[in-house]
Structure formats: C-alpha cells, structure tokens
Amino acid sequence: MKVYHGSTVVVDSPEIMQSERLLDFGMGFYTTTNLEQATRWALKVSARRNANEKFISVYEFNDEHARQELTIIQFESANEDWLDFICACRSGRGVQTEYDIVIGPVADDNVYATVQFYELEKSEATLMDDKKFDALLPIMIAALTDKICNAYHIDEDNAIERLYSSQLYAYLEDEKTKVWQYSIEKLFDLYRVETAAGKLILPEY
Q1: Which residues of 133-147 are buried (b: 16+ CB within 10 A; e: fewer)?
Q2: pLDDT in tens, 118-132
Q3: What is the largest distance, in Å, between two alpha-carbon atoms of the chain?
Q4: Tell me, what DSSP letter sits at residue 59?
Q5: CA gap 102, 190 in Å, rounded
Q6: pLDDT of residue 128
C-alpha cells in the first residue's frame, strides 16, 4: 500500500527523532494513506515555517509483513479507546503498551465533538476530567494556530503569541466557560471578530 508524508522537505529515509512535542500517537514519523490529507499537511507545515517549499514523500508499506514482524496498535474509529490513547500521548503520560506502529484517525478540527460525546457517555458530571481537558487544549490551540497562520500570513510563533494574548484564549483555557465545545471554525470566527472589534463577542443563546 502507498502512504504519504507532507512536509517542506523530501524525506527519503524517515527517522524517529527525539522530540518534546506531544502528538496524537506519541513520538514518531507520521504518514497517511490519503494523498489529499498529506497535501493539507504540507500546506500547513509550509505556512507554520513560513516556507515556500511543499513536498509529498511517497512510500510503499507492506502491511502484511509489518503485522508479522512488528507490534501494531490499530483504532478502527475515533472511539473511547482512541480518545484515551490520544489523551495519554498528548498529556505526556504515555501508554502502558509498547508498540512500533499506530494506525488510526488523527485528531482533527472536530475532536472536541468526540470528547464532548465521550464525556456525556461516561459521566453526567458537568466538568470534564482535568487530564483529558489538558490533553484536548493543545490540540485545539494547534488547529487555531494553523488557521491564524494561514489567514494572517504570519509564522507560527507570531500566531501563538497573538492567540495567547487574546481574550478568546483566556476563555478557552477555562473549562468552565465551555468555549472549548465550539468548533475550530467557530473559535477562529470569534478570534477574527475580537481582532477587528478589540473585544471578545460570544454568541448569545
């Protein structure tokens, strides 16, 4: 099967580099079977790094051989086990099971909806578990940062600085406000309006 990796450089020989970034499936080299998704990744990385280059590296992956030789964790859907795994990786707690490869959906702009459903199913409590919220927040911040980079044509550091200094972020990092339940598109809309108006204007329901 063909898998793709989108970046600002061509990666001929992938390597697992030590990193402090807390990603969905932990430290590793990320690929996708979806060429369109890899293209989006290349565009996002290019915008974050303020670079003009965009490349899609293509690899042949022998799935049958890998399953015979390697330890693989596979998630068929964005279910409860998937969410627990992502939360563990994103919070830096790690997971108990040793593995070589993880196969499954990567958290996207709709991950907050999965979390909300997950929490409602697990408990009638009004507050999200602190560890899960701490794991969710960086995912949302990363998605918002991407949108700010692309919309305002600025680099990632500048985008993060702008976001962190906004009223929206002050609300977003407080679980009790429930602002985290909005879609990334809606959150970016709130940020854009705040930037133009000089104040955060929340929807009235």
Answers
A1: bbbbbebbbbbbbbb
A2: 544 544 444 456 666
A3: 58
A4: E
A5: 35
A6: 56
Rounded to whole angstroms, how far apart are CA atoms 200 and 92?
Answer: 32
List the domain boundaries for the chain.
Answer: 108-205
30-55: per-residue pLDDT in tens?
A: 999 989 889 988 988 888 788 889 99
| Distance from C-alpha of 183 to C-alpha of 93, rounded to nearest angstrom | 26
Residue 50 tokens, joined: 């303020």
- Please state the three-class secondary structure of 65-122 as a single string: HHHHHCCEEECCCCCHHHHHHHHHHHHCCCCCCCCCEEECCCCCCCHHHHHHHHHHHH
- The dihedral sign for the CA sequence 183, 186, 192, 195: negative
pLDDT tens string 152-162: 988 888 899 99
